[in-house]
Design a protein that fits this description.
The complex is a heterodimer. By secondary structure, chain A is mostly helical. Chain A has helices spanning about 1-10, 15-35, 40-50, 55-80, 90-100, 105-135, 140-160, 165-180, 205-225, 225-235, 245-270, 275-290, 290-295, 300-320, 320-325, 330-345, 350-355, 355-385, 395-410, 415-435, 440-460, 470, 475-505; strands at about 180-185, 190. Mean pLDDT of chain A is about 80; it is low at about 230-235. Chain B has two domains: about 5-60; about 75-140, no CATH class. The chains are: A mainly alpha, B mainly alpha.
């Protein structure tokens, strides 16, 4: 393991890769600050650039962008009460009230320190957790992989939120359907190409990610009319001192420690991600706080700001565990990274640890550097970076559209891809308007090919029988977890209803 | 039964799943495939079935109380469609007019569509940007970009 850590250190410490971390953090902070554009869009926008880099540098850049975007999202949450992404929504609860009390500088500093601690704790646990899980998963067979992918897809849908589970499942199936377009990977038979040569290779992952996240998000901003309000009503508040007193540090330190570990654990769960981690950490801290401090939550409580910030950064790190060790992304952003790695010809999973230790370890090590960069370079520069928020939206939005389409064009040099993007963006906007979540679709699309390959292998080995799902204890365990995740919310609801009925009958 | 957003989405998805399943029959199979437990049509048929099941569930089940979106303004819809049209035109014109001219036109017209009326901004935020970006790609990053067909005919 230590040999691997040194390999990762030497790769991550290469001047070019260090520069990638810095560039990634800056670009991510800027994109993440723009309301509506979150880490998924930020990472998607970076993919075309990473295609010109070697895998380690590319993935380091994307990890930097990921961190930067989460940090940028917190900044806009605190300064203008507009979260850049869902995972920083909770930051607005106490961050913006602090900014309104002329403590914006303190709020930003606390958010940065909490994020740094969350990310650091996450990176340290990751160093030990990832190789352990990777060595266990080396014994996985195709049936286990199939069950794991099913678990990943199901849990993303199960955590989609109240009333959204069926929609998320539908979107997963939709993503799997899109993945079948093009020549079949096993037999080479053309599927759903309708005689179009441009569809023989299937739909590009980059095209789909850009269209459904970057382009569709800009279009939704325009549709909702938000772009017209950005420049007029969302004026950033003035920054003040960034210093925290000793008593304030003493107050938030236990919160940060608890939320970091808690956030990491939630982040590891496939599908849970940083958003759920930040909400749960906030709720946990509010419940743990003494009565006097509990009243402050929602009105500018330091604990209320530190908890979600530490948790969402630790969860972002945690979501790399299933990606790097099992090849199953834990969030929408890591799903995009998975697609980018596959485009490099690198298959994340248990073999990544053995076959590409430089990529595996450099990603983990660079996460720590990313946190350092955010703290040392980005925090002092926030007053200047936040000025970018004043770029008029009528200029900024066309530029984002341009970067999205040109990013896809520069990979394929095929204008058909831009036309396809327009078509997919219109569908994505329609689906967003009908409240269908996009991340399960992208995850279904990315895992579709692997899911089909592993299912095919498992079925051939078991002679067409589905008993492979329960023949091996490991597969059976994963299948059971999948079923529990899928049906637990319904069973709990049923239990609650029965409990209420029994109570009323007893009365 | 009201036609809520969820049910409308469910109906659309049902239509998609049925059509997807219908076209699965067009996927060519190898001669031995019929005796294999898994072939090129298997996954599409299963996905089509799953799609139908989920769509029916969404149509039949009681809709969840999700906050309704604010009604969209017709002018915003037209703006969005306009930008999409410009993007489509960009893809058609790009090979003919070349990268710098098409990009400048696309950016300037998009700024204008979104409400920017100052000529200075329209010109200076598009033409120099397109030229610098083109130079960066071709001269610094050594990316080959095909010349305009109309100009270099």
């Amino acid at each position: 393991m230590f040999e691997g850590i040194f390999t990762g250190l030497s790769t991550a410490l290469m001047p070019f890769n260090l520069m990638m971390v810095v560039v990634g953090c800056f670009a991510g902070t800027f994109i993440g600050m723009l309301p509506g554009l979150g880490p998924i869009s930020a990472v998607a926008l970076m993919i075309p650039i990473t295609y010109t880099l070697d895998p380690s540098s590319g993935i380091i850049l994307m990890a930097g962008v990921y961190y930067g975007a989460v940090f940028g999202g917190s900044t806009s949450s605190i300064l203008i009460n507009a979260p850049g992404c869902a995972s920083t929504l909770v930051t607005t609860f106490d961050g913006y009230p602090l900014a309104q009390k002329n403590q914006a500088g303190k709020a930003l500093a606390l958010a940065a320190y909490a994020s740094f601690c969350g990310g650091t704790v996450g990176a340290i646990i990751l160093i030990f957790a990832a190789p352990a899980l990777a060595s266990v998963s080396l014994s996985f067979q195709s049936s286990d992989y199939f069950a794991l992918m099913l678990l990943g897809l199901t849990s993303v849908a199960a955590f989609a939120g109240k009333g959204q589970v069926i929609k998320a499942m539908m979107m997963t199936v939709f993503g799997l359907m899109i993945a079948t377009v093009g020549n079949d990977v096993i037999t080479g038979a053309p599927r759903y190409t309708f005689g179009q040569m441009d569809l023989v290779d299937g739909i590009s992952f980059l095209l789909l990610a850009m269209a459904t996240f970057a382009l569709a998000e800009v279009m939704m901003t325009i549709l909702r009319g938000n772009m017209f309000s950005t420049s007029e009503t969302m004026k950033p508040v003035a920054l003040s001192s960034m210093k925290l007193s000793r008593s304030e540090i003493k107050e938030v330190a236990p919160t940060v420690a608890r939320s970091s570990v808690f956030g990491f654990i939630v982040g590891v769960l496939p599908g849970a991600g940083a958003t759920i981690a930040s909400f749960l950490a906030y709720g946990l801290e509010r419940n743990l706080a003494p009565e006097r401090l509990r009243k402050m939550f929602g009105k500018g409580a330091l604990r209320g700001l530190a908890a979600p910030e530490a948790a969402n950064n630790a969860a972002s790190t945690g979501s790399f565990v299933p990606l790097l060790t099992l090849g199953i992304p834990g969030s929408g952003t890591t799903a995009i990274m998975l697609g980018a790695l596959i485009a490099y010809g690198i298959q994340p999973g248990p073999r990544l640890y053995v076959d590409h230790p430089d990529v595996f370890w450099s990603v983990i090590i660079s996460m720590y550097f990313g946190n350092l960069v955010l703290l040392i370079l980005n925090l002092p520069l926030i007053p200047y970076i936040s000025r970018l928020l004043s770029i008029p939206p009528q200029i900024l939005n066309p530029l984002i559209i341009f970067f999205s389409i040109i990013g896809v064009y520069l990979v394929s040099f095929n204008t058909f891809d831009i036309q396809m993007m327009v078509f997919i963006t219109l569908i994505a906007v329609g689906l967003k308007f009908l409240n269908f979540p996009m991340a399960p679709m992208l995850l279904g699309f990315i895992l579709g090919g692997m899911l089909e390959k592993n299912l095919s292998r498992a079925l051939v080995v078991s002679d067409g029988s589905f008993n492979f799902l329960w023949n091996r204890p490991l597969t059976l365990t994963i299948t059971c977890i999948t079923l529990v995740i899928l049906f637990l919310p319904s069973l709990l609801k049923l239990g609650r209803q029965m409990g209420v009925k029994m109570m009323s009958a007893a009365d | 039964m009201n036609l809520t957003k969820d049910r409308f989405g469910g109906l659309l998805f049902l239509l998609l799943s049925v059509t997807y399943g219908y076209y699965a029959a067009d996927i060519p199979l190898l001669p031995r495939d019929k005796f294999e437990p898994f072939h090129a049509q298997t996954m599409p048929y299963w996905l089509s079935g799953l799609g139908v099941i989920f769509s029916i569930l969404l149509i039949v089940l009681k809709p969840a109380t999700v906050a309704e979106n604010e009604p969209l303004l017709k002018s915003n819809i037209l703006l969005m469609l306009g930008l999409m049209a410009f993007t489509f035109i960009f893809s058609v014109v790009l090979p003919w007019l070349g990268f710098p001219i098409t990009t400048s036109l696309f950016l300037a017209s998009s700024y204008w569509l979104l409400g920017e009326r100052r000529i200075k901004i329209l010109v200076f935020a598009s033409v120099p940007f397109a030229l610098i970006f083109w130079l960066l790609l071709t001269q610094v990053l050594d990316v080959y970009i095909a010349p305009a067909r109309l100009i270099f005919w």
